[in-house]
Amino acid sequence: MALLPCLKAGCVEAGCDEAGRGCLAGAVYAAAVILPPGFYNADLNDSKLLSAKKRYELRTVIEREALAWATGIVTPEEIDRINILKASFLAMHRAIEQLSLVPEHLLIDGNRFTPFPGIPHTTVVRGDGKYMSIAAASVLAKTCRDDYMNRLDEVCPAYQWAKNKGYPTRAHRDAIRRYGVTPFHRKSFVLLPPQQLSLAFSDTPPDKQIDVMND
Q1: Integer Cα distance of 115 and 109 in angstroms
Q2: How confident is the model at residue 187 (pLDDT cuts 50, 70, 90)?
Q3: What φ, ψ does residue 123 adopt, rounded to 5°?
Q4: CA 198, 201, 207: angle at the middle one, nearest 5?
């Protein structure tokens, strides 16, 4: 099914989506994208249905052709403090705040959202497979977060984050069991059964986390 160009024709509409909500480690990323009227790309779709190569190809197109785009990040520490649902909404808010063009309407992937001040929104279940702007946001959020997890993999290679991107794979949980928890893990998540959990990397400098996040 072809993706729809917009929900409200004739207004500046931004699509928003997040990536990394179900991960055990790393920040949650979100993106907001405003596409130009008439934008169409036959390859654009929900990022989960695309190959990594195609996602990065589309990212180049989106960043070049969008009227405005931005990403927002919420750290593991913030996730633990406010919970992952609120963190996902906060990441979207941070992306929207950074747009160079103020949208008149927001298209949000999902069925819940904390309203952004002054801008009406519509939630769309599986919106990344229905609307161009949400699909574009899903591609940016996913690829930017993948880049971040690839950098984290260089800091903590035992957890294979370049492969699993922080999701709860068997290899990831085996590494947690063997090496313990890093500063990049979400401590509020069930990483392992409680009796198997330990702490590690206590000497990792805090500024290292910031450098990896923003490089």
Answers
A1: 13
A2: very high
A3: -90, 145
A4: 140
Distance, CA of 1 to CA of 94 (rounded, Å): 31
Q: Which residue is it, tokens 């999902």? A: 110
**Whole-number mean pLDDT of the chain?**
92
Band (2; pLDDT cuts 50, 70, 90): confident
Collapse the DSSP code of 16 into the 3-class scheme (helix H, G, I; strand E, B; otherwise coil) and give the result. strand
Here the tokens at position 167 are 């999701």
pLDDT higher than threshold 70 for residue 25: yes
Q: How far apart are CA 134 and CA 149, in angstroms?
A: 22
C-alpha to C-alpha distance for 58 and 43, rounded to whole angstroms: 8
Q: Which two tokens stand for residue 138?
A: 């899903």
Is the confidence at residue 210, as pLDDT, over 80?
Answer: no
Among residues 135, 141, 79, 78, the alpha carbon closest in space to that of 107 is found at 135
With b for 16 or more beta-carbon neighbours within 10 A and e for fewer, the 168-199 pattern comes to beeebbebbeeebbbbbbbeeeebbeeeeeee
